[in-house]
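Collaborator request, handled under Task 6.
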Amino acid sequence: RAAAVYSELATRKGLLLEHRVDPAISPAHHADGLRLTQIINNLLSNALKYSPVEKSVHFELDQNDVRVVLKISDEGIGMSEQQVAQMFQPFTQADSSTTRNFGGTGLGLVICKHLVELMGGDLHLESTLGKGTSLWFDLPFGIPATTAAPAVKAPQSAAATFPVRVLVAEDNAVNKEVIRAMLQRLGATSTIVENGQLAVEAARQATFDLILMDCQMPVLDGY
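Structure tokens returned to the collaborator:
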């Protein structure tokens, strides 16, 4: 599902998203779907964000004994060894120009690492300046004794459980599409603007249940 969503975003940016899933992986693996989706969305979003046009992003899912390994690689700006050593510190990026050119604060990678650790794994990063970056993690996914699906009550639709209006202030094109898709799946109605000033104007003209703002934006920032 993630590959399908991000393939469309990659095409819009002029990138190629290649994905491969090991056919040996059992569909009955137990996992925290919400956390796993958050991690994959963040890593794929970053890979697309930092990759120049006409480059590739690779998404792989393999099985190693009782663990499942997920790896995301890009051919983007890359980082030096010193910069890699700092990347799991909150609010850290390779250099100050990264925020100006690409947006973000580096906090997402810290959150991803924490979520992976909560699920019993560890997030690893390798990068070469000017050539690209690879991130991967492995998780212990349990397999139930039987794969027969138990009879369960059909859940309510997301639209019925999350009927809210959300205002989003975000200037990065990839992030906007990801946020829009995630909110749509939750059943929320979203209005997306490109900077803080437009967010202020939108909030004065309409009523929203929730406002999400990027910190670093042109004209007026999220702070």
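The cover message to the collaborator said: "The first helix runs from residue 2 to 13. The longest strand covers residues 56-64. Please let us know whether this matches your experimental observations."
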